[in-house]
Every structure is written in C-alpha cells, then in structure tokens.
C-alpha cells in the first residue's frame, strides 16, 4: 500500500510517501520533503504553493491513502486559522482525486511511532529513522512528522473511526 503522510502548515508543509507491505510489515521510502514559502510571501501565494505541490505529489506517486495531522492549538488562534486553511487545501486536493483521508492526533502518531504519546520531536525523528532504516535523520522535522503520520497509518490501517469526519466529512458520491 502506498501512503501519503502530511504535516500541515502554511509556511512549511511536510509530506512523506511510503510503500508498506502488510505481509512483511516492511517499509520502503518513496519520497519525503516540504513545500515552503519565503517569509513575507502573501498568504494566497502560500496556499497556492501548497496546493500545487500536493497535487504534483499525488499525481506523481498515486498514493492509495492520505494521513494528515489533526490540528491542536491552545493559544495562537491566528496560526491555527491559517494552518486550518492550509489543511483545507490539502484535503481538497485529496478529495479531487478521491483519495481517502485519515486524520490522527499528534499523541496518536507519537504513540504509534515511539510507543510514548508525549515523545518530543527528536525522539520521533530517531524512531522514524530507525523504522525506515534511513542512513540519516529525516529533516526537516516537518518531513519527519509527515513520515511518522504515514507510519501511523500503516500500523493503524483503514479504521473507519479515523476517517476524516466532522465538518470535513465528505461523500464522494456527491461529486458524481
């Protein structure tokens, strides 16, 4: 199964594409990286960079499922709203290609990858490196988080309770 993991952001958005063999429980890294915009870039341009970037990744690698981080912000509502808008663009790109989307809370991802729901960024990076047998630490941490989301999806499987829901729940039959 080919899995696309996404760590949403509006200045830096991480992505990771993995092939997962359920029989051997083995991974193969296909690609990972980030979509970035320079400081001072207009917000509409930032969203366009993310949209065009994710469309290219989906077209190029044709994943079977997308795992995206559920947003959690307790203080900075301006950042939360902007990140939510970037997340919406990512979900739109998936919906346009009928790509199923699953969402995970950060604590779920950390627990799936490290065994500890309160692991720090460095611990997550180290475990992603170990699980994927990478020679180097995956960087930047946005890309490592995206790979962690893909690993979490592989370990969790297509559980209906993690399928995108709430206001973002969509029925593809409406598009036909």
From TrEMBL:
| Designated name of the protein | Crossover junction endodeoxyribonuclease RuvC
Its ancestry begins with: Bacteria, Bacillati, Bacillota, Clostridia, Eubacteriales
Assembly, per entry: Homodimer which binds Holliday junction (HJ) DNA. The HJ becomes 2-fold symmetrical on binding to RuvC with unstacked arms; it has a different conformation from HJ DNA in complex with RuvA. In the full resolvosome a probable DNA-RuvA(4)-RuvB(12)-RuvC(2) complex forms which resolves the HJ.
What does this chain do?
A: The RuvA-RuvB-RuvC complex processes Holliday junction (HJ) DNA during genetic recombination and DNA repair. Endonuclease that resolves HJ intermediates. Cleaves cruciform DNA by making single-stranded nicks across the HJ at symmetrical positions within the homologous arms, yielding a 5'-phosphate and a 3'-hydroxyl group; requires a central core of homology in the junction. The consensus cleavage sequence is 5'-(A/T)TT(C/G)-3'. Cleavage occurs on the 3'-side of the TT dinucleotide at the point of strand exchange.
Q: Where does Mg(2+) 2 bind?
A: 69
The record describes how the cofactor is bound as: Binds 2 Mg(2+) ion per subunit.
Sites binding Mg(2+) 1 sit at 7, 142
Domain of life where this protein originates: Bacteria
Gene3D superfamilies named among the record's database cross-references = Ribonuclease H-like superfamily/Ribonuclease H
What organism does this protein naturally occur in? Amygdalobacter indicium
Listed under catalytic activity are: Endonucleolytic cleavage at a junction such as a reciprocal single-stranded crossover between two homologous DNA duplexes (Holliday junction)
